[in-house]
Design a protein that fits this description.
Layout lengths: L1 E6 L5 E6 L6 H14 L5 H4 L2 E8 L6 H11 L6 E7 L1 H11 L5 H8 L2 H10 L2 H12 L6 E3 L6 H12 L3 H6 L3 H7 L4 H18 L1
Parallel strand pairs: 2-3, 3-4
Antiparallel strand pairs: 1-2, 1-5
Helix pairs in contact: 4-7
């Protein structure tokens, strides 16, 4: 079961899961919830305000059996809030067409508020618009940052950042060569002025 973890600035956490909608799905979701509740690395503030979003591809229309499964997941009272977002291939293709592959919340909001598209949806059942509406109903965030699990250490990320400035900086850092590091750090006039001012203030404080 593929899963991604997202958080936002309000200490809300969401597990986004891609899986099939079958008779075992609720049990799988509950199992994930139980794992999270026991995980000491997950902040308590997240545990008190989190949800699971299940995304599932279906064939054609949602069947009555599938609807019952959606209800059993979303109305389950244990652990956290749960949302099920379903779609089929036709809806996905039409959504890609109307969004122009720009899935930013601003663009999608603009499309959703387009009266002509709404009118077409009401008259001719524009399935791309229908899916877009469902996304805004089922995804209670659209402003989250991804927390990807990784095998990289903090030094790996430091190396990447330093290499973007100059390829020699990481080597000098590892060798603890601070004097040469300064040669690769270019400061603006304002930054130099601010540093000199701080130095002067420190020197005056020692007098």
């Amino acid at each position: 079961m593929l899963r991604n973890i997202f958080v936002n600035n309000y200490d809300e956490m969401y597990f986004v899961i891609e899986t099939e909608l079958d008779k075992n799905t609720l049990d799988e979701v509950i199992s994930i919830c139980a794992e999270v509740e026991k995980d000491s690395q997950v902040k308590k503030s997240y545990k008190s305000n989190w949800g699971v979003i299940l995304i599932t591809a279906i064939e054609g229309e949602l069947t009555w059996q599938q609807r019952k499964r959606v209800m059993s997941i979303e109305e389950n009272k244990f652990f956290c809030r749960k949302y099920v977002l379903w779609y089929n291939d036709e809806e996905k293709k039409k959504l890609e067409e109307i969004c122009g592959k720009d899935y930013g919340s601003s663009n999608m909001s603009t499309i959703l508020e387009n009266y002509d598209l709404f009118k077409e949806f009401k008259i001719n059942n524009n399935v791309g618009y229908d899916l877009l509406s469902r996304i805004f109903i089922k995804l209670p965030y659209l402003n989250l940052n991804s927390l990807e699990t990784t095998d990289k250490t903090i030094l790996d990320f430091i190396k990447i950042k330093l290499n973007n400035i100059h390829p020699e900086l990481y080597r000098l850092l590892v060798e603890d060569n601070n004097s040469e590091i300064e040669d690769y750090v270019l400061l603006s006039d304002n930054e130099n002025e601010s540093i000199n001012k701080k130095i002067e203030e420190l020197l005056e404080g020692k007098k």
